[in-house]
């Protein structure tokens, strides 16, 4: 007996369809006073690669809705080559989570450093500027399955974090703050 063939639903796209890499040379005008590359330069490149990846998957114009955690693990130097590798890790109805890995490379010294990994939530927009449905995602490796589930869990955690933060904010009053800040390195001057 032959196993029944199964196909992805129509319109679904594989992760590989939109994988995007941008490599850019870090020129002196990108540096701060300390001679290292401005964090903002890297953020701008990350936003660019996230856009390209998301727009390819969506087949539509996209906007950045939120960014999850940008931790700079190592400084980037002038003359380094910075590569940003982006892939769609998760899709909802109109949103996509694009995972971005950033590496910097000193080609002369043959040193490659992982500078950060971040997750950009991008939303597709239609011609009326309304969120537009995006194609489903075809997962072709175990790593892609793991990333999809990780993104789903991150989304759930973000929702409960947001609710908890709202509760904390609503409960904060001046007298409680004065008490809890007693051991902190601040001076209340009022
Ligand atoms: C983000 C934005 C598209 C959401 O629009 P909205 O009308 O509130 O749409 P919805 O509530 O229907 O949400 C649409 C999708 O975005 C997701 N979303 C909305 N806000 C989000 C946020 N802060 N973080 C992550 N996802 C978000 C929703 O979960 C939903 O996903 P789904 O369809 O996959 O379930 C809208 O607020 C916007 O255009 N913001 C400005 C974006 C921009 O200009 N970015 C550049 C900044 S300089």
Automatic annotation (TrEMBL):
Keyword 4Fe-4S annotated: no
GO biological process: one example: acyl-CoA metabolic process
Residue intervals of the HotDog ACOT-type domain: 16-128
GO MF term list: long-chain fatty acyl-CoA hydrolase activity
GO CC entries: cytosol
UniProt entry keywords in alphabetical sequence: Hydrolase
Matches recorded under PROSITE patterns: HOTDOG_ACOT
SUPFAM superfamilies attached to this UniProt entry: Thioesterase/thiol ester dehydrase-isomerase
CDD domains: BFIT_BACH (cd03442)
Pfam families tied to this protein: 4HBT
Keyword Disulfide bond listed: no
Family of this protein: Belongs to the acyl coenzyme A hydrolase family.
Protein name, UniProt field: Uncharacterized protein (TIGR00369 family)
Record organism: Mucilaginibacter yixingensis
């Amino acid at each position: 007996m032959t196993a029944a063939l199964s196909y992805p639903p129509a319109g679904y796209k594989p992760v590989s369809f939109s994988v995007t890499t941008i490599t850019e040379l870090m020129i002196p005008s990108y540096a701060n006073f300390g001679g290292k590359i401005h964090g903002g330069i890297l953020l701008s490149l990350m936003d660019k690669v996230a856009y390209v990846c998301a727009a390819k998957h969506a087949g539509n114009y996209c906007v950045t809705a939120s960014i999850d955690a940008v931790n700079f693990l190592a400084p980037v130097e002038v003359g380094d080559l910075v590569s940003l590798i982006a892939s769609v890790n998760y899709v909802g109805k109109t949103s996509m989570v694009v995972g971005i890995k950033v590496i910097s490379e000193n080609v002369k010294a043959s040193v490659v450093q992982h500078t950060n990994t971040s997750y950009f939530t991008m939303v597709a927009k239609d011609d009326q500027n309304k969120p537009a449905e995006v194609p489903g995602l075809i997962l072709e490796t175990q790593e892609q399955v793991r990333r999809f589930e990780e993104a789903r869990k991150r989304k759930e955690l973000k929702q409960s974090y947001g609710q908890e933060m709202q509760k904390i904010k609503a409960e904060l009053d001046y007298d409680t703050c004065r008490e809890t800040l007693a051991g902190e390195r601040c001076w209340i001057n009022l």
